[in-house]
Structure prediction request, 509 residues.
Amino acid sequence: MAKRRGERASRRGERSRPAAPVAAPAYVKRAIPFYAFLEEEGLVRLERQADWLMQEIGLEFREDPVALETWRQAGADVEGTRVRAPGDLIRSLCKTAPSEFTQLARNPDRSVVIGGRNQVFAAVYGPPFVRDLEGGRRYGAMLDLENFVKLIHCLPSLHHGGLVICEPCDVPVSKRHLDMLYAHMRYHDKPHLGAITEMTRAQDSVDMARILHGSDTLDRHCVIMGNVNTNSPLLVDKVVTESIRVYCGAGQGIVVAPFILSGAMGPVSTAASLAQALAEAMMCCAYSQLVRPGAPFVLGNFLSSMSLKSGAPTFGMPEPVMSNYIIGQLARRLNLPLRCGGSLTAAKTADAQAAYESADSMHSTALAGANFVLHAAGWLEGGLCTGYEKLVMDADRLGAYQVMLGGMATDENALAQDAYGEVEPAGHFLGCDHTMRNYQTAFYEAALSDSENVESWEEQGSKEMQRRAFERWNALLRDYEAPPIDPGIDEGLKDYMARRKEELPDAWY
Prediction:
């Protein structure tokens, strides 16, 4: 059913304008100042609270005796599964993590630098459902995942593939990570993430990356990362510690983001939840450096408010917006790369609620200086659903953010003194030499926005944004061309997948 629906949608979009990939920077090189939300006194208080949590309260490291023994040998106070460590020990360990690093893509032109003044946008991660304008809401399938991967290849403002753009629920849980990895390795040539839910799946990710990039390259460079969440409050389970050992042990990267709904997985106050998130992430960073000093680590933050009447998470609200700004300041004080969420919303469709909640969430993430932005496009329904239209709508706005983050030129051409010599007072600049030299690059042109008069809009069918987005993603898929890959590498990936699938029994949960 999903395949027929996808093919039918593609045919309906045949008369849409072509939308092939265009040349664009592989990531954002930020040229504007960082936004400072909190004064020094407040930042120090949050850091002291994080230190107090790590030293006096401690974090649980359950189900992983290897992690406990590593902490014990490092000088931490280990009592059962509770680990306590002074802030100065944790901070000294965090110092060996690089402040920025490059994740190589199989196309070198698409490699990204994470950290410093660089910002990388990746799509939504994890939803089990998908939605499109005509197919409605449904469980995600492998066809959907492949479609999303192809769209990411075509959208220049999405710099990174992520991994689970949707859960392909028509493939056994025990094997779907292999198919997802292959889709990312074959159908786009940008960087991507690996699996984390079990240690063997993380190892499969590293092993397939070794086939794709070669052993020498993987041994010397970061080519794949895992993204994990702590089990807030104050619990680090074996999914996190084992993923750290697999990825960081191989010299690859790990992203650790505490997922805190204030009032549920953290205190109801934003300040306390922020300090808790900082403590959890710092402890994981320290552990990654105990596994392998210098391994790439990205400090994450996913803090949301919630409805205290229903318990439902809320997005784009002032409290998580503030947390984005402040965690940016705290991460820079640690000299660590930062991951935040992006275009987040609780809306069920790509409607006005989705637009304003996503805009506020993404704008604060961008200004805060998040170096790796997961969920930058496609997020709906509090993260339960990936929207086809939402993905391309968000990507359109990401292009605008990229222009803003690049700053404003003030050179001779930008000040346009020659134009004033050509155009008389009360004249117009439309046809002057300066305009003709710059008209192709002067302004960001949004692919989906309609700025024409109402008569032109009506002549084109009075199409609202979602309809235009529907036609755009169909046109992108119709015009998609897979990036070339070495046939020997492709065969090696397929052989590895076939062998592992033979070894793994089908499991659906």
